[in-house]
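Q: Please design a sequence for this.
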């Protein structure tokens, strides 16, 4: 069953339209511990929550299954002062007395006892918080009165003051730009006041619905997120937004955020944050998943669940790659269905919310869990520290974690084509694995989500992954497994951004203090252009041209007027320096390069695994012949490279012991390294 049938008889899906290789090569290595910045251990509380209030009594005995067996937790709720009226009409004392009257009830619930002490996002609607000319200090007093009673004083929670603060500015004023500026100033003053009263409370905003930064030549960015960051950003502990795959109302197709679009979106926010403050402010994704407006207020249908689950897994796989920047990412899965949209204007028939994890049973009284629990069932065991994993296909997203004898590798297929995965284990990993467990979450022939699990003791080196499927390979390995080395991922940002594209004119981006070493690197080029224009730029780094891939993560965006996405371009480490210049050139005029980021993954110097170590020789070339490795055992001054006839090709005047030498300018062939201690050593480029 196709999603277009479920959504609308005229709805069609956007397909990738790219040609795929025969197989995707996956490099995996349990011997290498992976860090992203300083983060290695998976913090489950960031990614696998449920949009259910910690102060709610909606879950009782059910909490044992959801919150214990499935390893999830309440992560976000609309439970600020607003249930008692808007801030304009309430006094601080009234808020305090009313919340005290009900606090005994919710503070005794199993949910609050376990999760009410922190790591929770408190959200309110703009209509309950903001009025034109409102006094931010009064708001601080009233929110403080609520916080003091509702949550423990030392709790580390998040306050996202106004959900979708800019979404309905016309309700307040016809001058939308002026009202956005007033809201931003109001936000900033409240944040400043609350942080003085609650040092552990993190205040941020503005939880915008999925942004389309590229619209109107990036005017959408200028008039929303940039405006907010310029006015209120200094006071924000985090920046918040929502990431949705959603229906495009103009074309009645799915406008996918998952893949290159979300990567470009986050790269732009991070780059501007770095430009303003020289640091990347943490990001809260207050909702992520699939958004179909006309499902709301309709009768629940389990046929929809598979497509919700596909979107959730596609987006969370990308967000898992960014633990150093993502403060929290909350799946768009809600609690009990009856709690949402009951007899509202949007839902006059009182139908249950389609994104609820608990729906009414056929008897109309009891409740049963929907297929959305499969999201938590799939991820429930994933924890521990990151291990090295890489895919050579941007449509195959990968993550890997190790915990107490369990090595968990997760693969997600962004494309609408099956993919053959080639698992390139190190010889050590294949030898020490005793059992392979395959856990799959996919759309079955009946159009329903199916979660399966099977195991074998036969070594698995290949597997077919279905379109849009998420697959987990769990390997049983010894509990005393130790890491031989580590790899650290860094992101390097430029101070140049949002550069207009002019045909055949190079756009320059400068990078300073880039860490280099042994490892791998990519240039992330994000841009917004007409979808039928040139989408394959010529990219150079330090005057070296690099090959631009024809494929990017996710679909081709052919159902949109403007392409907005990120191309990840592998580059030889030998091209990188401490200070770098990247040039991006397109064949036609129009659009903008929104950001360029240099991503590096640097290995420790003690890499021993054969997946990364070159042949056991005193001198050898690597990285396509661009680097020459000289053993530290060779102690000499000013060695030189000659051809086989003894003619000097390159003098290494500033050579230091054990140094790796750039030989990218040498032609393919055989050479000799002349040394004072080891004589003449032959090598091949």
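A: Design:
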């Amino acid at each position: 069953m196709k999603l277009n049938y479920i959504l609308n008889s005229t709805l069609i899906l956007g397909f990738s339209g790219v040609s795929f290789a025969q197989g995707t090569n996956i490099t995996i290595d349990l011997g290498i511990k992976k860090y992203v910045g300083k983060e290695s251990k998976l913090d489950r509380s960031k990614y696998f929550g449920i949009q259910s209030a910690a102060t709610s009594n909606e879950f009782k005995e059910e909490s044992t299954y959801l919150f214990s067996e499935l390893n999830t937790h309440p992560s976000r709720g609309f439970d600020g002062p607003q249930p008692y009226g808007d801030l304009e009409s309430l006094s601080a004392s009234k808020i305090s007395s009313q919340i005290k009257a009900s606090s005994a009830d919710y503070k005794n619930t199993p949910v609050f006892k376990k999760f009410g002490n922190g790591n929770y996002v408190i959200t309110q609607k703009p209509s309950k918080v903001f009025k034109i000319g409102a006094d931010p200090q009064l708001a601080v007093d009233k929110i403080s009165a609520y916080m003091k009673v509702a949550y423990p004083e030392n709790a580390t929670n998040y306050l996202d003051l106004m959900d979708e603060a800019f979404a309905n500015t016309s309700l307040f004023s016809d001058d939308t730009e002026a009202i956005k500026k007033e809201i931003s100033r109001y936000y900033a003053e409240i944040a400043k006041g609350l942080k003085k009263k609650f040092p552990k409370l993190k205040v941020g905003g503005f939880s915008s619905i999925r942004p389309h930064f590229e619209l109107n030549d990036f005017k959408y960015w200028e008039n929303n997120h940039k405006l907010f960051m310029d006015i209120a950003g200094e006071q924000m502990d985090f920046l918040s937004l929502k990431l949705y795959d959603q229906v495009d109302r103009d074309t009645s197709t799915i406008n996918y955020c998952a893949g290159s679009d979300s990567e470009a979106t986050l790269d732009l926010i991070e780059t501007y944050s770095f430009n303003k403050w020289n640091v990347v402010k943490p990001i809260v994704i207050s909702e992520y998943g699939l958004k179909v407006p006309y499902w709301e207020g309709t009768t629940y249908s389990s046929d929809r669940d598979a497509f919700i689950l596909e979107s959730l897994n596609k987006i969370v796989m990308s967000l898992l790659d960014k633990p150093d920047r993502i403060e929290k990412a909350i799946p768009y899965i809600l609690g009990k269905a009856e709690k949402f949209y009951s007899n509202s204007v949007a839902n006059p028939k009182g139908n249950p919310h389609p994104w609820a994890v608990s729906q009414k049973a056929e008897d109309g009284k009891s409740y049963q869990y929907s297929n959305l629990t499969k999201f938590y069932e799939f991820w429930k065991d994933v924890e521990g520290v990151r291990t090295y994993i890489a895919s050579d296909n941007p449509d195959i997203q990968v993550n890997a974690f190790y915990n107490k004898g369990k090595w968990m590798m997760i693969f997600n297929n962004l494309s609408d084509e099956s993919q053959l995965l080639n698992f390139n284990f190190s010889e050590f990993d294949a030898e020490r694995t005793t059992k392979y467990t395959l856990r799959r979450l996919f759309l079955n022939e009946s159009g329903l989500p199916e979660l399966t699990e099977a195991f074998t003791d036969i070594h698995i080196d290949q597997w077919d992954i279905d379109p849009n499927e998420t697959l987990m390979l769990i390997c049983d390995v010894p509990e005393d497994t130790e890491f031989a080395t580590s790899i650290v991922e860094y992101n390097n940002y430029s101070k140049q951004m949002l550069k207009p594209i002019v045909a055949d004119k190079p756009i320059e981006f400068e990078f300073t203090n880039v860490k280099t070493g042994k490892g791998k690197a990519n240039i992330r080029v994000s841009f917004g252009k007409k979808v039928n224009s040139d989408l394959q730029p010529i990219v150079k780094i330090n005057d070296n041209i690099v090959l631009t891939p024809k494929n990017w993560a996710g679909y081709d965006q052919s159902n949109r007027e403007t392409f907005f996405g990120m191309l990840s371009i592998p580059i030889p480490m030998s091209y990188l320096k401490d200070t770098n210049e990247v040039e991006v050139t397109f064949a036609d005029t129009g659009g903008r390069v929104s950001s360029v980021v240099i991503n590096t993954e640097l290995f420790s110097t003690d890499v021993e695994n054969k997946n990364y170590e070159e042949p056991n020789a005193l001198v050898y070339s690597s990285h396509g012949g661009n680097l020459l490795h000289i053993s530290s055992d060779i102690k000499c001054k000013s060695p030189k490279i000659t051809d086989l006839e003894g003619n000097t090709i390159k003098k290494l005047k500033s050579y230091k012991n054990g140094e790796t030498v750039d030989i990218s300018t040498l032609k393919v062939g055989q050479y000799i390294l002349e040394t004072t201690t080891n004589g003449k050593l032959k090598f091949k480029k």
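Q: Thanks. Anything notable?
A: Residues 171 and 205 are 20 Å apart (CA to CA). The first strand starts at residue 24 and ends at 36.
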